[in-house]
Structures are given as C-alpha cells and as structure tokens.
From TrEMBL:
Major localization listed first in the record, in broad terms: mitochondrion
Name used for this protein in its record: Protein arginine methyltransferase NDUFAF7
Role: Arginine methyltransferase involved in the assembly or stability of mitochondrial NADH:ubiquinone oxidoreductase complex (complex I).
Gene Ontology cellular component terms for the protein in this record: mitochondrion
Subcellular locations according to the entry: Mitochondrion
Amino acid sequence: MDSPILSQLFRQLFRHPACQGLRQPPASLGRQTRSFLTRRTPNKRKSQDNGMLWTKRDDYPKNIDKEYWSYPTVTAKDLRNRRERPRQVKMLTREFIDDSLYNPHYGYFSKHATIFSPGEPFDFNHIEDGPAFHRLLGDRYTQFEDQLDAVNPDIARQLWHTPTELFRPYYGETIARYLVSNYKLTLYPYHDLIIYEMGAGNGTMMLNILDFIRDTDYEVYQRTKFKIIEISPALADLQYKNLTETLDAKGHRDHVEIINRSIFDWDTYVHSPCFFLALEVFDNFGHDAVRYDCRSELPQQGGVLIDADGEFHEYFNTQIDPVAARFLRVRQAASRRPFPSPLGSRALRSLRFAPSLRKVHSLPEYIPTRLMQFFDVLNQYFPAHRLVASDFSSLPDAVPGLNAPVVQTRYQRQTVPVTTPFVHQGYFDIFFPTDFNVIEDVYRAVTGKLTQVMTHEDFVHRWAYIEDTETRNGENPLLTWYKNASMLMTV
Ligand SMILES: C[S@@+](CC[C@H](N)C(=O)[O-])C[C@H]1O[C@@H](n2cnc3c(N)ncnc32)[C@H](O)[C@@H]1O
C-alpha cells in the first residue's frame, strides 16, 4: 500500500476514536468473538431548520449547512463506475455502506477481503481440547497469511473465517443432510434438486455439498444443480478455480453454474422449486440509520455528507425515504411480538420524560433495508424458493446504537475497530447482527411463506454428525463456537 493511502487510512482511523485493546490472540480470531474496550466520543449536535440535523464526531464541528443544500445526493449505484472515492456529495447510510463495501474499484470486497481456508480439514477427533484447537487454528492462520503475503503483500488484508471453512467438510455435510432430507420429503421424484447459493466465498460449501450428495445418494446427485450468485469477481474466479483444480472437484463441473452478479441485479424468473442458501451474507447488507425524537417519537433518517476535503459529517433528516419508510411500516404491521426500540420500552419511556433524564434524540437504530429488498428479489424472481439462511444474531463491541454494526479494519495483522461506519471507504469491514425475530416476520410478510428460526447450535444438533467435530476431551467447537448465530428456514 502506498504511503498517501496509508496516511489517509490512519487519518481516518484516528480521527474517529479507535477502540482500545487492539491485539487479539488467535483464540479470538472469530468475527463473532472479538473483544475490546471502546472509548466513545460524545456526539456533537447542531440542529437547523427544514428538518436537517447534523452530527460531527469530533471536537470542532464544522457548519455544513451550505454544503448540505448544494451537494447532490448520490447512491452506491451512481458511484459504481467511479474510480475515486466521492467528495462533495451526500448519501443515505445504506448507500454509503454499500459503496464502501461493494464499489468495484475501491470497495472492501474488491480489494482486501479474503476468506481464510485452513488447507487440510481439521482432524478434531485427534485434537486434545478446545484450547488446542485454538492454537492450531492460530498456526494455520499465520501460515495462510504468510503464503498470501509471499505472492501479494497486503498490510491491510481483511481475513474472514466462517464455519463453512473451519468445519469443512462437516458443516457442508450438515447443510447437505438438511437439503436432501427436505428434497426427498417434498419434491422428489417430481423435481430436480436445485440449490442456489448467494455469496459462496471460496466455493467450499458447494464442493462439500456436492461431494456429500454424490457419495451418499448418486441418484439424487445426478439430478442436482448448484448455482452460485456471487457479487465479487475475485471470489467468483476463486470458486471456479477451486471447482476445477482437482480431479474430484472437476467431476462436479456439469452440476455447477457460477453467476458473477449481485443478487440485487438479479432479473431472471426461476419458476422451479429450489433451495436458496445465504450463509453469512446478510451481515454485510446495507442498513439505514434511524433515530427518534424522544418527545414526539418520530423517526429521522441518517446519512453522511462528504465535504471537499473528504471529511465525513453525519446528518439526520426528518424526511424518511420510501425504502426506510416501507421497512418501518412492514415491521410495524408484521411483527408478532414487540420489537426493541432505541427509545427503550414503553415503561422506560415514561421515566425518560422525567426532566433530569430528558434527551433530545435516541441513539440510532440500524434497520435492515437491503435485507428487506433481498426478500423482494426472492418473492419476485424465486417464488418457489426455500430459504436456508444463517447469520450472527448478536455481535459484541459494535458501534453505538441498536442493531449497530461492528466496524473494523486490519493493519499489519491486527484488528482495529472504530466507532462509526463513516470511515475511509474500502478499508473497513462493516457487519451487522440480524434480529431474527424481526426479519422472520418481515420475510413472512414479503413472501407469504412460513418459516422456522433456530439457533445454529440447535440446527447443528439436529442435522450434524456431531461426533465428527468432537475433540478428545469431548468438547465440540462446532456447537460452541457459533453461539451467537441463528438460522432462518422456509418450511
Ligand atoms: C462472509 S462471506 C461468506 C461466504 C460463505 N457463504 C461462507 O460461509 O464461507 C460473504 C459472501 O457473500 C458475497 N456477497 C455479499 N453481498 C452479495 C450480494 N449482494 N450478492 C451476491 N453475493 C454477495 C461475498 O462476496 C462473499 O462471497
């Protein structure tokens, strides 16, 4: 990385307070297990007419009234063909997040995101216990990064690790057992087994599922089609490479199609019944920020203004755009149980109105507007789908707010978390927890389908051969590592 970019990164990083305790032992490599202390700078606020209110997160807030009215509002789509990060524009929060993660030229997915692969599968039955597995994983992690650095050094590389990779092939086999059982119960022999996977990472889930079906039920295998929908060109290439690298994997070629496209650009009607996998993809979908007036309880929608110097200024507006407004409406209408609010429970709200406790605005709430739009895509183009989705149900050490994201980068192999999503685009992973209670109801309302939500642990208990991932002392990392993950399935 050249030095102007490096200094820009650090300018951005330390303009927004970095969290303390950056060093992470291999034991806490997990996206879901990071722990650090946060130091938060109180927000500065300035209100003005016409419903626009803005927030600058440092000590000398600059007045941006003039810029706010003169700068155009742009979307991530508008910026797709731009090679430079935008200046003198304003964007809704979800658009900024999408641009920061997915811009083909400077987005996080195009540059630094890599999914860890352990190489050989772990032989859990010969590993002493959980801590020994952590140590082994730490060693493999270092080896993996050393090999990448030998070819392409990158001090800002981001590394994910997912259950698909850590527990391969066993996690893939777990999902395959679920798919084949449900296929045989309801669709066989009248329909083929068609599996779509959105966001397939290294393509490991696809290979593990196809291996399992070929080895356990050749008749079903002959009727299986696996289609990947992948936004990242680099990952789509890698999936193809992994599919064709070994003779064993090559055998699956006629069963696989890799479509390099964002699910949000999907335009093909699929009338056949199909399973639709979405494993750890929702967490990077753009969210909108909404905060509430503590007196009127009316929402205000958040965005960011990027000035001529590339500085970020967060603002809130009383006008809610149609996408966020629809989410709020659908959630209100569809929820079968009370959903959390940054205003607190009704009982607390009355307390808050005690003069000493009065605040002007709530903390922001991050609402999954893109996820709702993904359900629209399923409903419109895949009417006979059955969703199998898994993601984090909670995340520690997120930025302030309800359903707020974790925002972090890595510098020289150390994780550096920050306290706002509005940071140098492309260098930060921005990932959200999923409130499964809320999104189950929204999914039902949008698609009209029935669903089941269960914890990752319950799903694994039900469908895995858990002895495969048991260490010698009886611990089972497949059960214990993803305690903060849940699954949503169409039934
Ligand atoms: C955290 S990785 C998970 C990979 C894999 N599912 C696993 O569990 O190992 C997220 C994946 O989703 C893909 N992705 C993110 N947004 C997408 C979109 N809008 N359309 C298609 N793929 C997307 C990413 O490129 C990446 O492959």
